[in-house]
Structure formats: C-alpha cells, structure tokens
Amino acid sequence: MKQNTIFNIQKFCINDGPGIRTTVFLKGCPLNCIWCHNPESKKIEPQLFYNKDKCIGCGRCVDACPNTCHTVTSAEHLFDRTNCIVCGACADACVTEALERAGEKKTVDEIITEVMKDEIFYQNSGGGMTLSGGEPMLQFSFAYDLMKAAKEKNLHTCMETCGFAPWEHFEKIAPLVDIFLYDYKETNPQKHKEFTGVTNELILNNLHTLDDMGANTVLRCPIIPTLNDREDHFEGIANTANNLKNIMEINIEPYHPLGSGKSVMLGGEDPLKGLTFPENETIEQWISSIQEKTKVLVKKA
In the Cβ-directed half-sphere of 154, how many Cα atoms lie within 13 Å? Predict the structure, then answer.
C-alpha cells in the first residue's frame, strides 16, 4: 500500500480541536516561517536530528554509517551531512538518542489503526483526529484518504492548515473536515511574504471561500514579539474574523523558542536567536487588544 511521510502521531492532545484528540503530523510545508516551532516539518523528506549535548562519544555511529558522515575524536563529534542519505543506521546505533530520525513512512491503514486505539477517549470527550504538519495539503491525496478513513470510523475531524493550497483541494476535502484550524499569520501582504516566503492573497481567498460554503473555522494566530505584535495586525485579525459567518473562535499562539534548538539540531541556524517566551501579562494584552475589536471569542491556544 502507498506510504507517505509523517513525523509524529501525538496522542491526548487537547489544543488541536474539541475534546481529547490524536494529532497526525504530515511532513512538508510550502511556507518557510522564520518562527516555525516544528522546523523538521518543512521538508517532505526524512531528516536527522543531532543533539551534541546527548552525545557520549562512543563511536557507534561511525561504525554504522555507510558514507563516513561521522567523525568522533576525544575532543568532538563531527557530523558532515554532505553525503548523508538519511538511512537512519546511525540513529539505530545511537544508545543515547543523540541522533534521531525526523520522518517515517506510514500507510493510511497504519495511521488509522494507531488513531483508533484511543477511540474510547474520543467518544467520552467529543474528540477525534486532527491532521497537522507541516501542511497536510502538500500531501493532498494522502491527507484526503486519511480524512476519508477517519470519517468511515465516525471520527470527528479537524485539519490545521496554512491555507496555501489550490482551491480545488480545499473544495474536495472540506466535506470530510468538521473544523478547519486555519492559520492567520500576518495581515500585511509584504510582511507575510517576508516572514513566511509567500503572500497571503491565496490564503485569504481560500479562507473566505471555505466560509461561503459553510465550513467551520478557528483562526490560529501565531504572535511573535518584534515581528507581528502590532496593533494594525491585531485589527486585521479582528476584521477578518468579523467578516466570517462560520468562525468559532480566535486562538492566539504565543511564540515559543523550542523550534530554535531543533533548527540547530537539523544542521541549520537559529533564525530568531535571543527571542524568548513572552510574559503572561503581554499575552493577555494581545488577547484584550483583539477582543475589544470583535465579538468572536479570543483565547490562548
């Protein structure tokens, strides 16, 4: 059966839709948000984390790697990714999990079987399955088949999406999605492109067209200090919500720096080095500023 790439199946989630849920994270995203807290989700291909703080210098990775990507001396462990084929042999050999895979192939049946292990929790809480990413729509056929399989099991379904996908894909999958958790990252089109790599025109068009066809949505709004914590953006969030007929609520997602460490472990740079968690008081101010401009409920995700 056809396999596609996921990077996590997270159980007992309570912030990805109503009730207790299992969230399936599909790998790959058409955006390149500089604040991304799951940088391992950006590329569709499997990757390798290397956490130097966990390495004990045992050298097992050196013996396991077929392409001589690892060099371990008494002073350091060097991981040269140039010839790495992400076979995972080094991660399998690592006893401290200093090396870990990010991404694995799964079939729809394998995922649904795992999701259904917690069916009793969904029934008692009104929960179900949520697709997230990355961007689920980047693996559209797989995402569609997953949602169809979930509906055949009578599960409540949510899909978190950045909205950047062809409208015909949204039109086809919408009947299988009970709630769209729809990202609203930046109001200003130029800043949206600066922060994410794309403008927001297609995203907003898809959002309003989904609303016109009756789809339920929750706006998910990441707020990043020094980037989009601005009054004009808060006003944009409220105005967008006020023009949606089927919006359920607005979720504020305060920045957290956990993705920065992941970026380094994937061999990249920390794009927002030094930026840290906003204070609770600051978050409440953001929420209040948006709430005073709309009757739609605004709350922290």
Answer: 5
